[in-house]
Amino acid sequence: MDRLNLIDYTISARLFRKDIPFYALIAGAMRKASSENITKLREMFPGIYDDLLARYNARGSVLPDDKFGDLDEALEKAEKIANGYLND
């Protein structure tokens, strides 16, 4: 599919109103992409792809260069922030 149907457009408008961060949207698109589309996204956003893959494979999605205090507190904070974007 290389065109935007009405349903996808409506969903995109809802995502826009939620003000979801751009790179979160790109990472989400990468998770859902077909093999053809992931190739395109990877070419356009190689750093995001590398981080997504690294976090996917890392324990707790935490990378060695992440800077924060207590891991449990950081994960809880990340969940709260994500919930703030995604809850209606």
Structural write-up:
The protein has one domain. The chain is 69% helix and 0% strand. It has helices spanning 6-17, 22-32, 35-44, 46-57, 71-86. It has 88 residues and is an all-alpha fold. The longest helix is centred in the last third of the chain and has 16 residues, at 71-86.
Short recap of the structure:
The protein is mainly α and 88 residues long. It is 69% helix and 0% strand.
Our count of helices gives 5
Using the CA coordinates, give the radius of gyration.
Answer: 15 Å
- In total, the number of strands is 0
SSE-based structural type: mainly alpha
Features:
88 residues, mainly alpha
SSE blueprint and pairings:
Elements: H1 6-17, H2 22-32, H3 35-44, H4 46-57, H5 71-86
